[in-house]
Design a protein that fits this description.
The protein has 375 residues and is α/β, with parallel strands linked by helices. It is built from 15 helices and seven strands. It is 53% helix and 10% strand. Strands 1-7-6-2-5-3-4 form a seven-stranded mixed sheet, sandwiched between helices. Helix 6 links the parallel strand 3 and strand 4. The chain starts with 13 loop residues before the first helix and ends with a helix.
Length: 375
Amino acid sequence: MDRTKYEDIQPYRGERFEKAKVNLMDKKEFIGAFAYMLTGNFASIEPMVGAIEKALVDVHSYDDFQHKVTAGFFIPAILENSTTGFSVSGGDNLDKNKGYLFISNHRDIILDCTLLDYALKQKNLPLCEMAVGDNLMVNQLVEDLFRMNGGIIIKRNLPMREKYLESIRISEYFVETVSEENKSIWVAQKSGRSKDGRDLTQSAIIKMLYLSKKKEGCSFSELIKKCNIVPVAISYQYDPNDINKGREEVTKEHNDGKYEKKKYEDLISMVKGLRCQKGQVHVSIGNPLEGEYNTPEEVAAAIDREIHLNYRLFDTNYLAYDVLEGGDRFKDHYATLDRNEFLSKFAHLSEDVRSFVLNTYANPVRMMLEAKQGQ
């Protein structure tokens, strides 16, 4: 694998990593600001900064950074401050010596991929690189932090022709990293978060993987086997950005699909996702796709089926489903949930936004039922 082709997008290694680390250690105030962003607690900043600085001394690769800093400080702080529990299922059949392309549903801007890494760590499996959009790279320090943490930069705002060529290059990086370097990568099943709770894979992602190697004579079926695709379902009992997402999507419906984001809107959503209450969180790691596949659509459907069947449904999902369907089919699944407290959160919303938000909670139940019917 010729890594020089990917210098501008791949995680930092070697000298570039060390340079970024020194720069980060010189920016104590940035580390402090990030610690506050995670916890919202001023009292926790100084001890966390001190512990991170101490840990960074022995960090010399993005794998070190992921284990000692992200999984050592960042994720535990997030889970302690904004969840009531974290659980993992699956992953027992994965080979520690193989690379996998983890394709997951996408609910939170940056938590999805970092929580997968935390889940892999709990399963004693190698951690993975992660694809993140350049829209989050608000400055060089933020980009350094992502790339020190195994981030692969996805360039989004490009002219059509350049965007196509960049998609081919990114896909080539994915395939080569997984199949030649035996290193795993996380990528979301679609560009942008799922706003409506219907987790569906964009077949274009699979198509680009194939096109990146088609010129080498690799068949579609061979390409899929090379990628070792593993579907992952990540579920949150509460979505801190549920109302924001609902307002955005309803606005689009009323404006012919148009919505202009405010300055720093993504950053605000990111902070809410990290800091605000999520209740129970579960990561379900599936098995690698097996069998023969002939089209990107077949692969996307297989990924979706695994995500919908393995998605951990919570009481909030079942209650929203019954409220919208007008029955009590799943009443046993939300017997301990305070119905009025949950629904009162959305009482102030307009009817269309309220309906949209409740559907984001109910749709995973519908997707599960559909997937079971198709078995």
